[in-house]
Amino acid sequence: MFFRRSLSLFLIGIGIGSPWLVRDWLATRSQGAAVAGGAEVEPTWAERLRDRFRRDEEPEAVLREVAEPAVPEPLKEEAGEREPYLLASKTKRIMEGFLGGAGGVETGGLKSWFPSGGEPPATPRSRAIVGEVIGRLAGELAPMGLKAGDPLFLRAFKEESELEIWMKPASEPHFVLFKVHRLVAAAGQAGPKLREGDGQAPEGFYTVGPAALRPETRHHLGIDLGYPNVYDRQRGRTGSDLLIHGGDGAGGSYALPPAAMDEVYALADAAFRGGQEGIAVHLFPFRLTDARMDKVWANPTRWTDEWVNLKEGYDFFENVRLPPGVGLEGDRYDFFIASGEN
């Protein structure tokens, strides 16, 4: 009996500590490929714990260390890729799902239960791509009053095979359209994704954070959409690792030519490093104009009611050029002025 109780408490302790282990692993990943002259490497949870005890035992040594910090050697990229325990990345996604920490629907602050991963992850390759793209885009951004690091908003349309890049200039109260890229593929037909492996790309409203950037995927860069969000989970929809990515095959995602994905990825990376906490990504079956919806009403489908709800969010942005705050009211999306906007 004692053994079973002890084992239960031990396992509970591991479960409680898992989010913080994952956070430290993500921080290590994002900084583990530092090059000479780069930023300091954040200490691991074990090092912080050891330093806490050392502070009590050797206060003078600690003060000297703070006064004259040692310059860390660059970490090898392979070391930064090690997970703190088996399936840590999968555990993070599962816990975000339970706590509402992913997918873009605000649910009363549950996101704050899961520790943030800090800056977006990066590798030497992704840093090189971002640096080259940002330098190249400067001449296109400046005439529009834009710069790398301005807030970003993305919209994708299956039927038109287009992805729009919207940015918010510092001198303007609303977003402006910077560029439209043609999609190589948007998986499936008009209609939402229902389950893992159905070949459908998601539709709906998502918000991606810094940890959603994928500098290393089997595709050419990627941004994880955070599917399923709260709305999807409420309907029992399943799926994982659905991205906007570069390359040919869609595989349940939205695919861009590699050069176009470089631009989307670089602007997202710059926006996060410029202070944007979450990038809204709105995914639609087609442009939800009044004329297009008249055709839907003339030939209703099982998704007509859902598309009418999506149109509310579509019209919100069309009218005010600001992405709405997104929540749930019953089993439908609810839209409101996001905090900090007017």
Kindly summarize this structure in a few lines.
The chain is an alpha+beta fold and 342 residues long. The chain has helices at 2-31, 45-57, 59-67, 77-80, 88-99, 124-141, 230-234, 258-273, 290-298, 304-320, and strands at residues 152-157, 162-167, 176-182, 185-186, 204-208, 213-214, 220-224, 243-246, 254-256, 279-284, 325-329, 332-336.
Name of the top-level CATH class of the largest domain:
Mainly Beta
- Fraction of residues in H or I helices: 25-40%
Question: What pattern of helices and strands is seen along the backbone?
Answer: HHHHHHEEEEEEEHEEHEHHEE
CATH architecture grouping of the largest domain: Beta Barrel
Q: Which fold name corresponds to the CATH topology of the largest domain?
A: L,D-transpeptidase catalytic domain-like
State the total count of DSSP E strands.
12
Major sheet characteristics: 5 strands, mixed
Give the integer mean of the pLDDT values.
77
Identify the overall geometry: globular
- Helix count, per DSSP? 10
- Look at the structure and name the CATH superfamily of the largest domain: L,D-transpeptidase catalytic domain-like
Q: State the separation between the terminal residues, measured CA to CA.
A: 60 Å
Strand content: 15-25%
